[in-house]
């Protein structure tokens, strides 16, 4: 009996060790791949240009957008071409599922819109999920793996993904506000505290409504967005809510935010995120 129990424990330990080693190698491969993708996204940015944002650059924008850009302290600063930032927070897959701790890093090209977001989530003790969301040359894709081995999500570029990742890029403009001045954006005033931004890039077009408070801080944004459901796509309102603000290198941004799907059955807050570090116009990776 003791011999059988000891042998069983050894087998279990060997299996756990093999899975751990395989997951570690898988994690390394994924990191190398996502780093290559990030460098590819960043490579076309115009970092040699040292354009300084002036008051006159804001002329013609809705008054609330102008107030936001001034509140963000962009006047007198270099135009943002690339961004890299780190995040911590919590994520859940369904309204009744538990929150999972998350750590992430993201790289963004603001000149030619694109990003790579790499995240690691702790699904359970000793069990991690890794994910990668990508927007490049107008196309979006997403991958999630369990233990860096078992593929859970592998969404290829399509019209719905392209529109969804474009909207993500737009919503996250709160972290790189000078993107609002780029030619691929068009602004329409709604009222004193809201404006509709429309982005056109690589043949895809999407609009999002941005809301601001009287001081000029961004408060929330919302747009209809596709989401994957049982092998297809449905459209629901989606957006972010800014919670707190902080300055990074003199630029004021919303460093804490929630990301919310607005289902017909009610709001689903699926992500609580905090930006812990931002660098602007830095060509390298973390």
In summary, what is this structure?
The chain has 286 residues and is an alpha+beta fold. The chain is built from three helices and 13 strands; from the N terminus they run ααββββββαβββββββ. The longest helix has 41 residues, at 2-42.
Annotation keywords:
single chain, 286 residues, alpha+beta, outer membrane lipoprotein receptor (LolB), chain A, 13-stranded antiparallel sheet, globular
Structural summary, described in words:
The chain is of the alpha+beta class and 286 residues long. It has one domain (2-46, 62-280): outer membrane lipoprotein receptor (LolB), chain A. It contains 3 helices and 13 strands; from the N terminus they run ααββββββαβββββββ. It has a 13-stranded antiparallel β-sheet with strand order 6-5-4-3-2-1-13-12-11-10-9-8-7, sandwiched between helices. The longest helix is centred in the N-terminal third of the chain and has 41 residues, at 2-42. The radius of gyration is 21 Å and the shape is globular. The protein starts with a helix and ends in a 6-residue tail after the last strand.
